[in-house]
Amino acid sequence: MQHLIVRGSVIGAALLWLVPSCSSDEFQPSNSAKGGAAGAGTGGGAGTSSGGADGGLGGSSGAATGGASSGGFAGIGGASGNGGLGGSEGGVDAGPSCVGAQDCGDTSKFICDPATHTCSAFQCSDTKACLGGQICVHQDPQLTQGACYTKCKIPEFPCPSGQTCIAAGSDDGTGFCIDAGSTKVGDPCTNIPNGLAFTDITKSDCEAGAICLDTCLETCDFWALTPDCPTDFGCGPFVCLPSAFGDSAQLGDPCAAPNPLCAYDGSKFQGKCDPVGGACLKACRANIVGDCPTGQSCNTDGICQ
Fold first, then answer.
1. What stretches of 7-54 adopt beta strand conformation (E)?
2. How does pLDDT run across 55-106, given as a tens digit for each residue?
3. 289: which residues sit within 8 A by CB, 6+ positions away?
4. What does residue 228 show for φ and ψ, rounded to 5 degrees?
5. Spatial CA neighbour of 13 closest among 107, 150, 178
6. pTM value?
């Protein structure tokens, strides 16, 4: 199973399958007011807007009344066809809008769909795969379930236009795409990705090609011979960081203090501080023999030993 490591949190990246959107008994918002107008089914008329009966999904053939509890999917279901999701006259919409799972109430049950920015049931887990070309991201790093995002890999597989690849901390550049913002590289930002004291994980303040770590920082190809980062910045890994960010130790030297990166060579941080022995050791990728010196191999921490 593949995992994407982001500053200490593990984002499960098994190929996981997409589950249906939530049903009337899956989303339990705290606001318990009765719902309002129901959405029209395909080919059917709109439901009533009185907000009387508890709402649900419209029937697939003929008129049908939904059976959700108070605060569930609002309104009486539309006439024939696939029933639309209800409105929210005094209640909560089915699939409320969100920017992160924290907007959906109980993060142990719901995720924020990165494609629609609406609350949904879990789409994947460590044992249920997303569709091809997607990656499962644990929006709550304490869980094994998550949401399906478009998969990316720096530099081979970029994100679609208007999105940016979050691969900070990944050993091989594999990451996930989120909506980009308009904040320029070098300017302050607030939307920090998962595992980095995030405020949400479906969009970024920063423009495409940058991620937010308090400041918008450029992404980079860590495994390039000379990654393209600004002067006094080093690639480490897959985001350009200030040269002073890492430990001053060079390869083989003891690190002065707990710090994930070391051995800055003017373009990137070549090593990581061993969490066990404390020495600065060469960074590597699993299954890439040439990354490590003769007689060494890449361990699970992504360092040569």
1. 9-12
2. 333 333 333 333 333 333 333 333 333 333 333 333 334 479 998 888 898 9
3. none
4. -90, 85
5. 150
6. 0.65
64: left (phi over 0), alpha (psi -120 to 50) or beta: beta
User: Which residues 6+ apart lie within 8 Å of 115 measured at CB?
Assistant: none
Residue 173, CA distances (Å) to 4, 144, 223, 236 in order: 9, 22, 9, 11
Q: Which two tokens stand for residue 199?
A: 């405020």
Tens digits of residue pLDDT in 145-194: 999 999 999 999 999 999 999 986 678 899 999 999 999 999 999 876 54
Strand segments (E) across the chain:
3-6, 9-12, 110-112, 119-121, 124-125, 134-137, 145-153, 163-166, 174-179, 210-213, 215-218, 233-235, 240-242, 261-264, 269-273, 280-282
From residue 93, alpha-carbon distances to 80, 84, 104, 291 in Å are: 21, 11, 11, 51
